[in-house]
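Support case: adenosine-5'-triphosphate complex. Customer-provided input:
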Amino acid sequence: MSNEDTAAPLLVARALVKAHGGTEALRGASLGLRAGEMVAVTGASGSGKSTLLHCLAGIVRPDAGTVTYAGERLEEATEKRLSELRRTEFGVLFQFGQLVPELTALDNVALPLLLGGSGRATARERAGAWLERFGVRGQGELRPGELSGGQAQRAALARALVTGPAVLFADEPTGALDSLASEQVMTALAHTVRESGTAVLLVTHDAQVAAYADREVTLRDGVASPAGVGV
Ligand SMILES: Nc1ncnc2c1ncn2[C@@H]1O[C@H](COP(=O)(O)OP(=O)(O)OP(=O)(O)O)[C@@H](O)[C@H]1O
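Agent response - structure generated as follows:
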């Protein structure tokens, strides 16, 4: 077995069960994610992909099962600790609606740094560098409503990564984009996370988007396969 096979996974879900009202979205789903690995979660509409991502990101608490991040059991964590993890260790990128509409693109990207205690000048400088990296520095003073869908997603990606998270959770990040904008967002995402060693859990129904991942996990009837490392 190679070192990679035996390396402890960073994030592990074991036997997750989660119902929304009478609907059982997860029925014993397990999944392991290594540091720096990109895993695509695919499956039919309603198969539980978003629910699995929300449980792994500490946004939703499962009814049963465990989620372990770097040895820490998330289901035992307080709300305060979960929000700290989401602010410092996890980044999120959703399909749309995540940028604050009243703020410029630059201030949106600076926001997580300001919330983390950075000074305004430093936060804006770092935010500008991230916008530059994703080719939208020129749009920094525009508000989200004035950006194209692809520009807004690249600004949202900058905001998700500006704090240097260990894990990026991306739920249909290109779901609202045409194929060119989708390719630009995915190329920027894949290149940057490889460089920074950020692990990615990528929910998508698009095979071309899933192809950017190192590995694909399919959800069927609330169960994931193959579950991967450490499960
Ligand atoms: N907040 C909620 N209230 C009630 N039912 C919900 C809620 N969230 C999800 N569900 C149901 O749970 C099941 C799984 O939903 P989930 O969004 O996790 O699936 P998905 O695979 O991400 O779907 P899609 O690809 O359509 O986004 C679905 O049957 C859905 O209708």
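Residues 20-21, 23, 25, 43, 45-51, 205 surround adenosine-5'-triphosphate (CB under 6 Å).

Case will auto-close in a few days if no follow-up is received.
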